[in-house]
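Minutes, project check-in
Item: structure for the 361-residue chain
Input as provided by the requester:
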Amino acid sequence: MNIVRKFLSSAAALALVLAAFAGGQSFIVEADEGIYGSMTYVTVDEDMDGVFDYVKITACDQSVTEVEIPSKIKGLPVTIIEEAFYGCENLTSITIPESVTSIGDLAFFYCKNLISITIPDGVTSIGVNAFGYCTSLTSITIPNSVTSIGNYALEYCTSLTSITIPDSVASIGNGAFYYCDILESITIPEGITSIGDKTFSYCNLTSIEIPDSVISIGNSAFAGTSLVSITIPDSVISIGESAFMWCTDLKNITIENPKCEIADSQETIYTMADQNGNYFFKGTIYGYENSTAQEYAEKYDKNFESLGEKPIVITVSDIVKFQKWLVKSGNLMEEEFIKYDLYKDSKLNIFDLIILKRKII
């Protein structure tokens, strides 16, 4: 298998060089340099200046049980691990040097006997399926340098019970923790803007806090989890199809955004189904009066309890905007400021502005 990979790597490098000359375009040039211990690597000339910049580990003897990756090979830093340990079923231990900045796609896919791993500071990305099907993995340390976790990066890590995602992470891919079926605890960092499709499907999560930075929840994002209660913050503007399907323990879900777009299907939120294709929610949906949460609950005959009228939150920026509108008298749509008729005279004027300022004070 390694021989095939080595041949393909060499052929790909040659093809890139020929394409660069033929099309006058800039390409990363790789040159297969051979074997280091049990590993296969290539050297990379990223800026096409004729000088190789770093080393990428691309394959490994699949019979290995322990590996220590060097920080340098032929004087060049080892910075990328890509598909290198794909299918190394016997691998139980690995040491990754500080020089590595990227754990690429399929890097440790199906290393089913790998028990623990520490990702060094300096790594900025974890690729697609990087640790997929590492079914014995009980511990993984993600440093503060990581900014992205790829699609299905840790799917089917069925021995993983908890994981800490650092605040540096800005994106988590679809299905990143799909079917980590005993995963009980995870923290979503501030800064994450979306929870993708199937991200936490069939995890054993009993509770989770969604930060105010999140604006969307994808299809089947929390399907089959053990959640008992969850609050969807006001920042979330959309909830995808089947987002909370088969959440058999879910007793209440609070949707704070009265205009949140909820996928129009009885399968979006349910705890059980019958043989006739009917979906039931044993819990309660909480939301504001005349909200989409109320509309959804009533349409699909799910329990709903009102949080009352959504309170108006007034900030200094609101006052500045309203004051500019009053001065220019019409540059902005009047409907935007109807809520500021605090003088209750069905007009928007200086009296409302005075009351607004007093409220802030």
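Outcome recorded: Helices lie at 2-23, 292-299, 316-328, 350-360.
No further action items on this chain.
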